[in-house]
Structures are given as structure tokens and as C-alpha cells.
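Reproducibility note. Readers wishing to regenerate the assembly model reported in the main text can use the exact inputs given here. Chain order matters: entities are listed in the order in which they were concatenated for prediction.
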Amino acid sequence: MPESTPAFEFDQGIALTPHPDEPGRHDGELGDGWQIGGGVNGGLLLAFAAHALAREAGPAHPHPLTVSGTYVSASRPGPATVRTEILRRGRSLTTGSAILSQGGQERLRVTASFTDLAALDEEVATTALPPELPAPEQCVGVEHAPRELLAQAALLERLDLRLDPATIGWALGQPSKQGRIQGWFRLADKRPADALSLLLTADALPPVTFDLGRPGWAPTIELTVHVRALPADGWLRVSHATRNVAGGYFEEDCEVWDENGRLVAQSRQLAMAPR
Amino acid sequence: MPESTPAFEFDQGIALTPHPDEPGRHDGELGDGWQIGGGVNGGLLLAFAAHALAREAGPAHPHPLTVSGTYVSASRPGPATVRTEILRRGRSLTTGSAILSQGGQERLRVTASFTDLAALDEEVATTALPPELPAPEQCVGVEHAPRELLAQAALLERLDLRLDPATIGWALGQPSKQGRIQGWFRLADKRPADALSLLLTADALPPVTFDLGRPGWAPTIELTVHVRALPADGWLRVSHATRNVAGGYFEEDCEVWDENGRLVAQSRQLAMAPR
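Running the prediction on these inputs yields the following C-alpha cells for the assembly.
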């Protein structure tokens, strides 16, 4: 039966209804509000599929630990179906595969492992350092982004994104050429971050190639996110970097840090480099 | 029908026979010689599954560009079956999924995209730098590795691995604690590197946690390899690094550089941290 409408935009964006007759199938709707560059944001799609798998994983392992998605065809706003298959139920992990499709066309293939992030070993021996950012009020909101970008980015209205002025020269035609974009991230309606919303966060900033003076869109081929801890509520620090633009492709590494200084997510994607 | 035995160990290790009656199925044998820490090396398994998908992708897209593997259960030497499914045949990429199983038990789930690496755009705008290594003859062969390691590592006999003395203090009970292991890699029988063998190279060094003073094995949960260029023949420089050991897991980032100074592969895995 249809479920009640969630209060927050992100929860509406990944809302699913279990299919009454087909075990493992969940149906939902990809909303207009998550469009970017003519398609639906890849992070939202990853969260949508992972949401279906999380339900199948069940309460013992409710959180994605690692989620790998391969983008098979471009998603469009409208109905979408996720068919899930649980591959293994272990003591510490539940692993599954999911196919997100629209009108019978496969959009995204996901394999993911789920755990209980609240029950992990408490050791934290992180040597990575969080990005150094000016305070959110010293950063640049997307209202300053180029009009042609905003026109194609309904997604940005769902986000409170404050980019570091040092990495947003591209918006003024002066890219730093460092291959780095960083800033503060929060959902616009203050929906608290959780393991699923981090999958969106990992793919929510503009393509890091903007900072290399390549303003075009960069279609994602593959995106893997490791969710390393449950995020604290509040602002998230997000950095995107690339070190290998070559052969028409580039990798984009993303880190997400919470207000407690915990590295809560790491991701890497391979994308097509804009000309 | 069975195919002739390849000349090189790696090609024997990933040898497959197409199943006569089941389209997309390929059968092979996981050899004793690829064992490590009681299981079969995860990189060899990834190459084994990717080999089957490469055959299905066909001559237009013969090389893996991105390969994501999720390790479902521990593989053992013996017969293994790969069942493949092609998800999309595009102009620049062919994408497929594969299940590697033994005796009906799923071992590894792979999703991968294939292309023609020889036909990529020639631009190389890499800002990453190759690891600085002493010459191979100044590095440390695995013959110096701890006996208890070698006893569980038939894999190492297939490899000519020369580790940087600066990152092998762990072998003498003095780990650098930098979370970094690097060295030179070549297949012991001089089999030239190619796109498939790079999948092995990305998971062939000892776990980077050895350098943190944790000598135990580190089971891989998920491993994604991006093959960014066809490697030149000769020595490969390989670096493994981790920056986030936390909650009982760690990420291991690997880079593989060829003798022409090209970054030919980048990989990241999530693994369980040894106690």
C-alpha cells in the first residue's frame, strides 16, 4: 500500500513502496527537484537504490557501509523501480545487489554491503585531515553560481551549499586549476544527515573539472561510496579533488567530514571529462 | 571445448572455457599458486571475472576501464564458474555484470565497463606524481619477508616484488606507522603487463596495515579498480596507502605507474582492519 509522504525533501526523494506481489521489489518516483545537467543526480540515484537494499537488509544491518554504483543509462524524472537481491547475510555484514530501472530500462546497477554503523569498533586512527574552510558565512552560496549552471540544476535548491571562495574562481571565469572544490554542505530543509544522505552528499558538488576550466557536465560511469561513520547533525565539510584527468576520463575523490571532525564518508568516481 | 594451456602463469590463472550450452558462462580453475592468507588473492579473482566479461564485451571494447568487485565469500583453489550478463553495449563503453561462484556458492559479484584503451583521447593532464623509489636492486625482495607470511602466500612466488626499504620496516618489527607500502612489481615469469594483469597488481602487495604494525590479514569487502591506460612493458611502480583506519575497517588506495611515468591504474578497496 502507498506510504505517507515524508516531511523532508530527501526522504520524499528516496521514498519507496514495497511491491505487493514481487518480493524484493520497491517502487518510487524520481522527482524533478533532483535534476542536474539534464539528468537525475547520481548521488540521489545511489541513495534511492541503497534505500531499497537497506529495507531488505533489515534492522540488524540498517546502514550502507560500501555502495558501488555503475550508471547504465541516463535517469529521467518519473516512476522508478528497484529490484533487490540479497547475496549474503553475515554476522557483521549483509550484502546485496540492486537494479534501478525506468520503464524496463536499466539505469543503475548497485552492489552494496550493509552493517550497523552504531555498533562498530570505536577505534578511530584517521591520519587524513579535514579541509580547511572559511566559516559558512564567509563562503559562497550557489545563488552566485553561473546562470547557465543554475538553469540545469534544480538539485541545488534542495541543498545549502557554501563553497570555499578559494575553489570557486571558475564561477568568475578564473578557475584555480588545482582540481579541487570544497565547501560546506547541508540539506536546505535542515534534514539531518544520515548514512543514506551521505550518498547524495558524495555527488552533490559541481564537477571538480569546473576548477580546471572545463565547465561542461561530467557523466559518472562508476561511483563507490564508503560510509565510515554515522554523521553528527549540522554542517558537513565536503572536498572534491582529481589528480588524473587523462584519456577523456577523470577520477573524482570526495571526502565528507562532520562537525565532530570525523571522516564520515569517502568516495571515488570515474567520470567522462568535459571537453 | 577445452582450450590450450597458456604459456604464462597469469594467463593460466585466469584461463576460461566458454560453456557449450549456457551463453555467457565461462568455467575455469582457481590455482593453488594464487593463494594468500588462506584464500585466493582478490586481485586474481577480479581479473578472472573481468576476463570472462572482456570476452563477452568483444573486440570493440576489449579492456576493462572500471571494475568493481564485492567479495561475497572466501574463494578456495578449485573449479570456478563465471556467469556474465551484458547490461549495455554503447559506442564508447560496454557494461556488464558477473557472478563468480564455486560449487553454487557466490564468491564475488562484479560490475565493470569495458572500452578500447588504445583508442582513448591522447590528452594526459595528470597532476599526481609517481612514488619515488630506489632502483629495484636497492629494494627488498619477498625472500626477506617473515616466514609466517611466506608460508601463507604462494601468490608471492608468481610475482617479482621489490619493496621500498623505507616502507618495509614492518618485516623487521619496526613499521613506519605511515600507512604506506610501495615498491616495484612485475610478474615473475616476465609476462607483460596488460589491462587485466593490472587488476591483480592493484591487490598484490601486503596489506598496507602491516606498515601500521598490524600484521594480520585484511579481508577485502569491496575493491574498485580504474584502468586508465595500457601499461608499457617492464617494471610497474605500485603504492598502497591508507588514511582512515576506523571502526574496524580501512580504505586502501593503490596507484600503479608504468616505466613511461603514466598512471595506468588507480584503485581503492575497503577492508577489515586486523586487530
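We highlight two features of this model. The CA atoms of residues 141 and 162 of chain A lie 5 Å apart. Chain A has four helices and 17 strands.
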